[in-house]
Write a structure and sequence with these properties.
The protein is 39% helix and 22% strand. It is α+β, with helices and mostly antiparallel strands. α2 runs parallel beside α3. The protein binds (3R)-3-hydroxy-3-methyl-5-(phosphonooxy)pentanoic acid. The site of (3R)-3-hydroxy-3-methyl-5-(phosphonooxy)pentanoic acid has 15 residues, from α3 and α6. Belongs to the diphosphomevalonate decarboxylase family.
Length: 370
Amino acid sequence: MKIVTAVAPVNIAVIKYWGKRDEKLILPINDSLSATLSTDVMCAKTTILTSPDLKENKFWLNGKEQSFDNVRLKNCLTESKLNYNKYIFALILIIFLVKKRCNSTLPYINWKIAICSENNFPTAAGLASSAAGYACLVYALAALYEIDGEISDIARLGSGSACRSVYGGWVRWQKGILSSGEDSIARPIASASHWPEMRVLVLVVNDNQKKYGSTIGMNHSVETSTLIRYRSESVIPQRIEEINKAILERNFHKFAEITMKDSNQFHAICLDTYPPCIYMNDVSHAIVNLVHHYNTYKEENKVAYTFDAGPNACIYLLESVLQEFLSIVNYIFPKPMDIKANDYFKGLPLDQTIIKKELMDDLNLTQNNE
Ligand code: PMV
């Protein structure tokens, strides 16, 4: 019997991946860049056991057993349209690819496996759960089958952004140009310790499952948005170099400007999609306003928001303004629940229904600083 356990954190993109040029191989139309958070608050955990006594493969996701029908493997690999459980399809494909890359003389290679995966945060709520989940699965399988070397390309096949969670720190996913997808891999550009003062706050506006998953949303955008092509061809190539430089130089003002512009452009594309896929809600927009008020008051960008395919805000900021900004958030959005915190990453749930809009409007930041 052999057992491995892996833990993988979520990553929060500052240059968003949105749109594929190859649906099957999950090849993106643009480069993207993210920071992988520490594993303390939001992460996925996967344990895999293999034993000669197991009669069939088993899979549990967040405590619920999922049907894991191996007979489908052949169909999965040949069918062009995925009209069944996408997660199981990806899981079977990933196992197949990891085994293909390992040493085929491993004594336990043909034993059945039992996989137990869980996220310690809401799944499919636009909180990058699939990225952490797939990165964790691939990492655990690679450990089980003793693979060294590139695995981000396999993680990419689960969910595109998962390839970035395979590495810690600041990570760039190069879109690549080859049709085989071999060069569409993630590469770290700087370690987490490169910018030790950087913090991320996750403001949980709503943790329900989102209406349109990212796969459906981005496919519709590629089919119907005219803005998406402009972004991938004329904006991202320069923008990604600029943010790369800002990160390497630890230039927060520039980093924040690019991060917010890219989040806004991504959501503009969602709105330009027909019919539109709206992910942000009124609370999300209230957070955007708050951040701009705060930065204006500070006369420089001290805080940056970014929103994935959901209403929840991810706030990048430096340790020096963390307490002040948090107290303002608590003031504007009362009734905060527990603040989960450590010194690298903090999560803060908000109550969606209670926003003091009038306070937002005449916000006197000087008072709040006291
Ligand atoms: O990897 P997916 O298919 O879950 O898509 C992720 C898309 C965004 O989260 C919106 C952007 C990103 O780069 O993470």
